[in-house]
Amino acid sequence: MALATTLANCLNSRNSRFDTIRHPYTLSSMATAEAAHVPGDRLAKTLLLEDDIGYVAAVIPSSHHLNLAAICAQSGRTLVLAHEEEIREVFKDCDLGAIPPVAMAYGMHTYLDDALLAQPEVFFEAGDHQQLVHMSSEQFADLMVGAEHGRFSRHMM
Predict the structure, then answer these.
(1) What distance in Å separates the CA atoms of residue 14 and residue 92, rounded to the nearest whole number?
(2) How many domains is the chain built from?
(3) Least confident of 72-76, 83-87, 89-93
(4) Is residue 46 within a helix (H) or strand (E), and if so which, with residue range?
(5) What is the pLDDT of residues 136-148, one digit of tens each?
(6) Which SS3 state, helix, strand or coil, does residue 60 take?
(7) Contact at 8 Å (CB) between 58 and 52?
(8) Distance of alpha carbon 131 from the chain centroid
(9) Per-residue b/e over 86-99, b at no fewer than 16 CB within 10 Å?
């Protein structure tokens, strides 16, 4: 599969410099990091959250757990993880579980954990379960302009 259309349009509109990495089919972010031979701290994982107002996305390293209380405090909202059916509806051009971090391109408020920006490079899903986008952290920061920054994840033990 090629890049998700929305992602490709976003990368092109920002003149992003990136390459792609193919990897064996995986169903979890940590399995993806292992299969692609990339550090979990450098692989962005996108989680879709919701409340009565609507959806938001949280982008954290795949080696981290979301601290839901922290993102609720930062957003001032009572958020919960969205259901799989809703994720399919929002990210129509992506496979379930292969959501790229540019949720702003899908029209939603996005929160970016600063732990990702501390890395020299970032990898993220291209919209399927067999391809990652790879770019420098500077390029990633440029791509994620408009995302709200914060600390709302913790490293898995």
Answers:
(1) 22
(2) 1
(3) 83-87
(4) strand 43-50
(5) 999 999 999 999 9
(6) strand
(7) no
(8) 14
(9) ebeebbeebbebbb
pLDDT given for residue 1 in this prediction: 59
Which domain range does residue 112 map to? Answer: 5-155
CA 48 to each of CA 32, 84, 109, 111, 150: distance values in angstroms, whole numbers, following the listed order: 19, 9, 10, 10, 16
Which pair of structure tokens corresponds to residue 30?
């940590």
Consecutive H or E run containing 113: strand 109-113
Residues 34-59 pLDDT 10s: 999 999 999 999 999 999 999 999 99
Measured in degrees and rounded to the nearest 5, phi and psi for residue 133 equal -95, 140
Amino acid identity of 10? C
What whole-number distance in Å separates Cα of residue 103 and Cα of residue 105?
Answer: 5
Spatial separation of the C-alpha atoms in residues 113 and 56, rounded to whole Å: 13
Alpha carbons 15 and 79: distance in angstroms, whole number: 33
Helix (H/G/I), strand (E/B), else coil: 75: helix
Tell me, yes or no, if the pTM score tops 0.70: yes
* CATH number of the domain within which 135 lies: 3.90.960.10
